[in-house]
Amino acid sequence: MGMITQILHENWRLQMPGLAEAVPAQVPGSVYADLLAAGKMEDPYYRDNEDAALALMEKDFLYAACFVPEEGILNCPTQVLRFEGVDTVADIRLNGVLLAHVENMHRTFQFEVGGILKPGENWLEVKLYSPTKWIREHYRQNPAEGSSDAMKGFANLRKAHCMFGWDWGPQLPDAGIWRPLELESWNGERLREVRVRQRHHRGHVTLDVTPLLLSGSECARCRLELMHPDGSLCVREDGLTGGLLQVFFHAWAKIGLFLIAGVIIHLAGLRNVEDFRGLGRRLPVTFLCLVFVSLSLVGIPPFGGFVSKWAISLAALDGLGGPLAYLVPAVLLVSALLTAGYLFAPIVSGFFPGEGFTGEPRLREPPAMTLPLVVLAAVCLMPKSMLEYMRDGYQYNYNDALSANLTAFINRLTALFQSLAAQVL
């Protein structure tokens, strides 16, 4: 189950002092609109009806509705009540529980209501307080001035200032639930916002994209796609990450191969792979490291080369489309087979020399030589969490400190490559 959204625009009633009974209300809507529809006020734009309409705003108003959560909402771990806009000074209650006191019509409010929401009927109330009383009280505390044609104190309230009068408009400070209202529930994480910062350098732009989750958790994986104005795909975050990881792990494994070659030349005096028969028994640590870096170069799980090639393949399959999408995985597969052909042959002959091999004594492998090889080989081996990452099809939740540290390292590595590219270009 993903996300469930229930629109809460039905069954609203408006009550205010002086009304014998509540009148039907529209959400989104406003007090003036509902009173006009119910025949409880005159057209405020006709003659001097503005004065009577303004006097109405000396009262408080109560919007109330009863709703039943849709099927599946209460089964989700997260339920959020989301107000796109409340005009303006209000108390919001669900089943008698005060969710918030709000004083800003220009922003969105959302409240986690798990534990308050219940099966069956739920009562939602929004009590709107008089905006004219509010600005008078706050003007006495903070006499901020504004337009001479507007009501005194309007500048203190985060409400559309033109409602309080202007040189071109009447003083009609309406109120209400003026934008959509909905109940949302979902499993897992959800983006709250995405912050994008641009850095311009020599005709190139570097984007720093920071996704923020609604729950504040850092344990989630997001995918970025950068689109061209014509709608074509410019950059996929998974493809970029896969490419950078491929550069890193391929370089790391090649460094290991060169060091291993140096150890073999120095200790065994051999320079041709044809002479490696039985050498795995004489230099077991060195050859075991050769196995690790070779498996990473080929791209065998759970080694780093597999992670990068998998990411590149997924990006191609998802982003390119058509027959071309399969060309990238095919090329990677062919290159892996060719790499396996020239690396696995000396490894097999080194560990399994075959019949007739008399053998030679084991050579001493100094720690100063083998320790760097072991470190290089260990880095090529990915943790179990990266296997889960691949299993979930690039939708992985990092759930341990090792994975979080690896993610931070990859992010820093990505930023380094981007910085170097910007300097070169």
What does this structure look like?
Mean pLDDT is 84; it is low at 383-405. The relative contact order is 0.10. This protein is 39% helix and 20% strand. The protein is elongated, with a radius of gyration of 34 Å. It has 425 residues and is α+β, with helices and mostly antiparallel strands. The strands form five sheets. It has a six-stranded antiparallel beta sheet with strand order 3-2-4-9-6-7, with helices on one face. A four-stranded antiparallel beta sheet has the order 1-12-5-8, with no helix packed on it.
Q: Over all CA atoms, what is the radius of gyration?
A: 34 Å
Uncertain stretches of 5 or more adjacent residues = 383-405
- Global structural class: alpha+beta
Question: How many DSSP-defined strands?
Answer: 16
Write the layout of secondary structure elements.
Layout: E1 3-7, E2 13-15, E3 23-24, H1 31-37, H2 49-56, E4 61-67, E5 78-83, E6 89-94, E7 97-103, E8 109-112, E9 122-128, H3 131-141, E10 164-166, E11 169-171, E12 181-186, E13 191-201, E14 204-213, E15 225-227, E16 233-236, H4 237-268, H5 279-282, H6 284-298, H7 304-319, H8 324-351, H9 367-380, H10 384-391, H11 401-424
Antiparallel strand pairs: 1-12, 2-3, 2-4, 4-9, 5-8, 5-12, 6-7, 6-9, 10-11, 13-14, 15-16
Helix pairs in contact: 4-6, 4-7, 4-9, 6-8, 6-9, 7-8
